[in-house]
Each structure stands twice: as C-alpha cells, then as structure tokens.
Amino acid sequence: MLLTFAQAKQKILQAASIAKPLNSETIPLIEANARIAAEPIISPINMPRFDNSAMDGYAVRMADIEKSSILPLSATILAGDNICNLNWPSGTCVRIMTGAPVPADADAVVMQEQTETTNTGIRFLEQVKIGNNIRRIGEDVKKGTEVFAKGTCLTAPTLATLATLGFDTVKVFKQLKVAVFSTGNELTPLGDPLIGNGAIYDSNSFTLKLLLTRLNCKIIDLGIIPDDPVKIKQALMTGSTQADLVITSGGVSVGDADFTKTALAELGHINFWKIAMKPGKPFAFGQIDKALFCGLPGNPVSTLVTFYQLVQPLILALSGYPLTELQPLSFKVKTTKALKKSVGRLDFQRGTLQTNSNGELEVTTTGQQGSHITQSFNHANCFIVLEQEQGNVNAGELVSVEPFNALLK
C-alpha cells in the first residue's frame, strides 16, 4: 500500500530531526542573506539609543506651553549634536531636527507644520500632548533582549535590523552540502547537440541546481550518469561520502533501466518508495551511511513538484530551520473551471490565484496537468491541492490552494 503524502513528509522530517546538526561559522553580515542563524541574536544596545525626535519641529516643556502659546526660540539641535551642555532657558522652545537627541526635560516635539513664526517667537497652533513625536530609548529594541531566535532565516529586513544594532558579522549554520546527478542514456548536457531520435536535454539537473542555489546549498554536481548499475552505484557512493544529502532524478520507477532504487538498497537502506501523490508517485527516500537520499522521478514537472513539496522542507530542516515553521500557507477558494481528478492520490495541480471583479479570490487551472507539461508552471502562482479520495471538481466548488513561496517566485 502506498504511503500517503502526509506520511511521507512526516518520515522525511523525522529523519531530518535526528540527523547530525550542521556546524556553524561566523560570516560578514553582507554575506548572510538567506542563511540560518545558528544561535539566538541578542541586542548589544538599545534602539533607539537615546530619546530622539520623530519630526522636524520644536521641543517644548508642558509648563511653558501652558503659560503661553508663543515661545521664543533659544537653540537648535541637529541630528548628531551633543546636548550635554545645551542652554535651554525656561519659557523658550528649541528648534529640533528629525533624529536629533531630545533634551531630558522636553515633554513633546511639535511638528513645524503645527506652528508659525512670529516677531516674538514660535506660535503653537494646536494642543500639545505629552510624548508627541518623541522616539523613546529602547522603544524598538531593548539592550539584552533576543532580536531573532536561533533558526531564523536572515533576510534583507532582518539583516538591516542587525546593521542598525551595529553587527558586522553573524553566526550561521554552514551550508548544506548536496550532491546531485541525473540518470539516463537519453540525457544530453545543455548546449550540446541532440544526437538520435531519443535524445533529450538534461533540464532536471539545471532545475535542481537552480533551486538548491536559491536555498543556499553547496552543490556537488556529479553530472549525468548513464543507465549502468555499476556507475550509478559509484555515483551514490561518491555523493554519500562528500555530501549531507544526495538527490537524483530518474531511475526510481519500475522500468528495466531504473537502477537507482536497487543501488540504494545495496549501499544503504530505503525508508520508503512510492507515494500516493500526483505528480511524483515514484519518489524514493533513504539513507547511505550518514547522507540522506532523495530519488526524484524523471519527468520535469514531477521533479519540480516533489522537490518543492518534499525536498525543500527537508533541506530547510537540515539547514537549521525550525520544523514548526515548515507548514505551507493553505486556504480555500472557488475554482473557476471544472478540474479532472482520479480518486487514490493527493493531486498537486498548478493554478493561478487571482482576484475577480467582486474583489474575491478565485483560482483557475493553468491547463493540461501532465507530468511532462512544463508549461503548466509558467502561468501558475499556486498549487491546487485536491485530496486523495476526492474525485472530479465542478466549477464554483471550494478547493484548497497553496500559494507558491519564494522558491518558485
């Protein structure tokens, strides 16, 4: 009996949870985009470091503004000024710029648009409230607090935050080493001429390397391996000694030349083979020594779907990403067209999620869904997920959708 998709994913993530954690390294902040934090990141300073003005305007004391709506100007404070020796007599106001330090006895900053200049000073046109337009020390981040947890994926916004806190390096997990090869006598490297009627280009290797690059993996490219059990076995041995994860495409079905599964059984062990999902039924998962193994089907769409749905969360988990955050976003919307579906497998159809004229989300199929129809992805922005025991779907019915994450955008 075939494993369900949920069972297969659970086994994969369970294997990831008991795998040896990656070592860590400290790298320059500028090189840390999309890397995973290897430890909690603690703020060394308050942010803001001092009370400062959120506006160009005037610092005032409430006692002064309550006595008179016009206050003489006594000083000007610019961003970066040292105000330790500021002379600010009572009954006056101070001109202050955005980001400039606010005097300790200032109760508010009044934006300049709410004032006017007169011959005797600055007239305040609206009621002033205590605390207006003052950014308080530690309001954003307090010194000694955890800014980001261990396992956080460092993106442009998170790295920008670390830069404001003065970090120039960060401790991250080392890149996952992934060995990749394709199998098949019919495969031809990109750029070479196709010789013979049965020759096709090895697009899967390109696709896998592209996706692995986006996931910040260190790629060990073992090339194209012919349908030779000895050479496939040797490639698996090489990959397992050099990498944390070995990924192949092709050779895991039931054809006469599908030797990858047999070689895996001889060198290590097979955790499972075949899943009740479409596309991607002939997916193999196992282990060779300390390296985990994912055998992807050879059809291009099947390769992409299984990588996205099963290999991507495995890589993220192995890279240090928290397992609790690997659940995809999913919700139900109406389909604009009828969908063909056979009972027995969870189906990941490609769809376009869009807003209709009434402002409601709806999804439409991208057309033919065969595992060889690569065009089905070109206009898609989501998966339409049809349950294993679900049959055909009528137009207007609710279906589950999973918007593509950053890997496919």
Structure description:
- The chain contains eight helices and 27 strands.
- With 409 residues, it is of the alpha/beta class.
- The chain folds into four domains: 5-23 and 174-325, MoaB/Mog-like domain (Molybdenum Cofactor Biosythetic Enzyme, Chain A, 3-Layer(aba) Sandwich); 25-46 and 139-173, Molybdopterin biosynthesis moea protein, domain 2; 52-135, Molybdopterin biosynthesis moea protein, domain 3 (Molybdopterin biosynthesis moeA protein, domain 3, Beta Complex); 331-408, MoeA, C-terminal, domain IV (Beta-clip, Beta Barrel).
- Strands 17-14-18-22-21-19 form a six-stranded mixed sheet, with helices on both faces. A five-stranded mixed barrel has the order 23-25-24-26-27.
- A hairpin with a 2-residue loop joins strand 21 and strand 22.
- It is elongated.
- The two termini are 35 Å apart.
- The mean pLDDT is 95.
